[in-house]
Amino acid sequence: MTDPSTTPESALRQKIDTSVPHSARIWNYWLGGKDNYPVDEQAGDAYTAVFPGIVTIARSSRAFLHRNIAYLVREAGIRQFLDVGTGLPTADNTHEVAQRLAPEARIVYVDNDPMVLAHARALLYSSPEGATAYIDADVTDPDRILAAAAQTLDFDRPVGLILSNILGHVADHAQARSIAARLMDALPSGSHLSVNDGSLGVDPVFEQAQDAYNSSGAVPYNLRTVDEITAFFDGLELIEPGVVPVTQWRPEPGAPTPQVIAEHGGLARKP
């Protein structure tokens, strides 16, 4: 395992504000994790009281990511991953899925929450053949992310870039597109982009719950139309079936008929 950019001690010395809900901790709560505070549980419960389907969205989003990673390793031959906006560790994190299939895989996790970084450093261990590293950086600073990631990843070889439920925290859509494009521009041909985000125009109850959440004092998360999510892949080659509800992206054989949910995602290859 490579040396992390942030140690658990230095991360924990940063202030963790437990007076306001935090999206990573709320997401962890919905996924059944324990790394959250009462304020996060209260916000999560208030959300599910309006829209119980958020738990399905959270878990379906995670399953979508697992299927993306498995495709990238098995079918695209990807052995390097840059996971921006990691969130708190749960079961089957990016490196665990990738290294189960290819022990030599190398993964860089990026987040700017001290609790996330401390937990990642303590819990996310690489296989001996591969590597994991952790970067303290904000998604709005792609140049910092790339400079730090280059210490672990070889940017002359294809990389799987993961932006899972992170671009919604960038309010301006043009800026969000610019971030995704800047990160992909630094990666070679054969690299892939995986994006999934909450979608507008599918479920008005979900949108009502999200509006309430955004006014609660938490960092807002902006839902986007399917066309806006699709625009993150401009200039790339979308892998079938394209941008779809995450439940419908290459479901496991024999799985029940996937329902339509207000969370869309896709995977695309850089020519």
Automatic annotation (TrEMBL):
Q: Which UniProt keywords apply?
A: Methyltransferase, Transferase
Q: Which GO terms describe its biological process?
A: methylation
- Please name the SUPFAM superfamilies in this protein's record: S-adenosyl-L-methionine-dependent methyltransferases
Q: Which domain of life is it from?
A: Bacteria
InterPro entries, alphabetized: SAM-dependent_MTases_sf, SAM_dep_MeTrfase_SAV2177_type
Q: Name one Pfam family in it.
A: Methyltransf_19
Could you state a single Gene Ontology molecular function term? methyltransferase activity
Protein name in UniProt: S-adenosyl methyltransferase
